[in-house]
Amino acid sequence: MFLAQLRGKGPVPPAPVATHCPGTHCAYGCGSTAGSLCGLTPTPTVDEVLATLPLLHSGEDAEYREEEDLVLINGSTMRHSQQVIAKIGQIEPGKGPISYRRLHHDQARTIVAGHRALPVHPTLDRTISVREAARIQGFEDEHVFCGPRAQQPLQGGTALATLGRAVAQQLQSMVAPRAAPRTKTTMRPGRKAASQPPITPAR
Fold this sequence. Notes:
The chain has 203 residues and is mostly helical. Helices cover 20% and strands 5% of the residues. It is built from 5 helices and 4 strands, in the order ββαββαααα. The strands form 2 sheets. It has a two-stranded parallel ribbon with strand order 1-2. A hairpin with a 4-residue loop joins β3 and β4. The longest helix has 15 residues.
């Protein structure tokens, strides 16, 4: 993602202000104790964002399912053969081929949906659902992915909702001060308004 400005139109927009501490990747050196030096909220882990979603098995239909404390939308899981499930079961977190790479428990890479395939669940032997991918990408649970189920992963993959929101807020803060407030035109004392020609209705 790029932030740019036309030459001569103003300064280059600065990068968005960090909202969460990346732990071992923090510029302040927080390390394993996220937020200890920078004071930011630790970045939620993959396990944390998936913790409140139901643990569904391969091939379950959950496009709309009412759970005890959650209305699950776009939660259907891909149907795998027993051979594929056995193959997935041998993959360790953070490893595996591109088509079946298991997510790490801590931080997730950018989720790329190729040929309807999403990464493998960090603990279950199946690929993640569209809703699980949306949780990791920062989408709210109320966001619905429409269209055929084969197209839904392509809508959520590489769609960095959290980053996009931060960039939009940064740009909005830069544009807002420039916008001149609209003032109501007042008529000077003793001055009459110009007469307007009558409007002829169209025939």
